[in-house]
Amino acid sequence: MKPIKRRLLTPGPTMVPERVLEALSRPTLYHRSPEFKEIFLETRKLLGKIMRTEGEVLILTSSGTGAMEAAVANLFNPGDSAVVVVGGKFGQRWEELCRTHGVNPIVVNVEWGRAVDPAEVERALSENPGVKGVLIQICETSTGTVHDVKEIGKILRNFPDVLLVADGITAYGVYDIPTDEWGIDVAITGSQKALMTPPGLAVITLNEKAVNRLVEKPRTYYFNLKKEIKQQKKGQTAYTTATNLVVALNEALKMILKEGIENVAKRHAILAEATRAGVKAMGLELLSYSPANGVTAVLAPEGINGQDVVKIARERYGITIAGGQEHLKGKIFRLSHMGYVDQFDVLTGLEVTELALKELGYSKFKFGDSVKAAMEVFYSANL
Ligand SMILES: *Cc1c(COP(=O)(O)O)cnc(C)c1O
Question: Is 251 in the pocket of ligand 1 (CB under 6 A)?
């Protein structure tokens, strides 16, 4: 049987609701038109609501990495130091961005799959007076791990000159995160993960402290955040933004707010719990000791290459799941359950895992074991 339907269970891009696709296909608006200006201003407001910040909300036309680069280039000067938590691919990206922009990264290395011990961050700050920032992921997507950014925010109250810069690209829209309350000075997200919109937009928020720290002359022309703040306050952007994507994002954000951020977070918690239960019922183990609610990283069983699970799922069944990156390539595969995902998508991910593993010769389970475990979770959660 050839697959006739394609399903995306990857941690970005994720599946896009029909309503959002419809919004995307509306006739393109001129980015300086009054009609677009209104939508743009509203979209900034909706983002502020979902991200729970009173700070400046900037929409950038780039993938998420663009907002990460904008943060490093606009908040630090060459020669500054920043503590960087590296527990996976995206932590490494912070480190590389620092080096690219002449910022000295003080790396807190964490075993991939573990959350950073907040005391380690505190130690790095105490041992390196004058550090200007802490760069971290809320969720490290490459390992499916959530860091305790709330606790790190508490620690930073004792370091008033340090900016907390949090990459929440797979956290916003998965968890209900009170950005301001946690002391996150700069928060970043992107359109193509839990925000249910195609790739192409990044979001960066800055509280007053962060705005005051924007450098005079960032070494980037395109990502000039001072310029963007000035323009975006007026519903404009410095350069042409992806107007269709902004219209689509606006629609997706309204869907999130209609469901309610708390309900969205609860849904993700249940979907994640069911996925974990299903995986364990197959006799498999998770990579992460602090598993995130947006994506589950599963250790491939002894003798089986995780990339083969991904390949069979895609080629034979039309279902795209993700493999591992760097030294985890082949060792894990990742089932995403963020964004436009419900219990039946989770069941699909588990079923295709069972089919692929069976084909690869792994037989420590009977067909349906994972589905049964997940169903129990859904049933008791009333989903
Ligand atoms: C997806 C993602 C990014 C951004 O990646 P892009 O490909 O540039 O959109 C950054 N951080 C995390 C944690 C991510 O999951």
Answer: no
Please give the pLDDT value at position 367: 98
pTM for the complete prediction? 0.98
Per-residue pLDDT reduced to its tens digit, 154-197:
999 999 999 999 999 999 999 999 999 999 999 999 999 999 99
Which residue CA neighbors atom 12 of ligand 1 most closely? 169
Give me ligand 1 centre to Cα 356, in Å.
Answer: 27
- Kindly state if the Cβ of 14 falls inside 6 Å of ligand 1: no
Atom of ligand 1 nearest to the CA of 171: 13
CA distance 287 to 330: 13
Q: Judge if 162 and 291 occupy the same domain.
A: no
- Supply the range of the domain harboring residue 152: 18-258
CB within 8 A of 216, min separation 6: which ones?
Answer: none
Domain-ending residue, one of 200, 231, 258: 258
Is there a single domain that holds both residue 308 and residue 200? no
- Looking at the structure, tell me whether residues 193 and 232 fall in a common domain: yes
> How many CB atoms are located within 10 Å of the residue 219 CB?
14
Distance 169 CA to ligand 1 centre (A): 6
Mutate to test the pocket of ligand 1, among 59, 169, 192 (most ligand atoms within 8 A of CB): 169
pLDDT of residue 184: 98
Nearest CA to ligand 1 atom 6: 64
All residue ranges of the chain with pLDDT < 70 are: none
Q: How far is the CA of 187 from the centre of ligand 1 (A)?
A: 13
Q: How far is the CA of 277 from the centre of ligand 1 (A)?
A: 26
Neighbours of 211 (CB within 10 A): 16
Judge contact between 251 and 16, C-beta under 8 A.
no
- The answer to whether residues 273 and 161 belong to one domain is no
Which residue in the block uniquely carries the two structure tokens 């990283």? Answer: 297
pLDDT of amino acid 1? 85
* CATH code: domain of residue 165: 3.40.640.10
Q: Which two tokens stand for residue 279?
A: 């995986």
Q: 56 with 107: CB under 8 angstroms? A: no
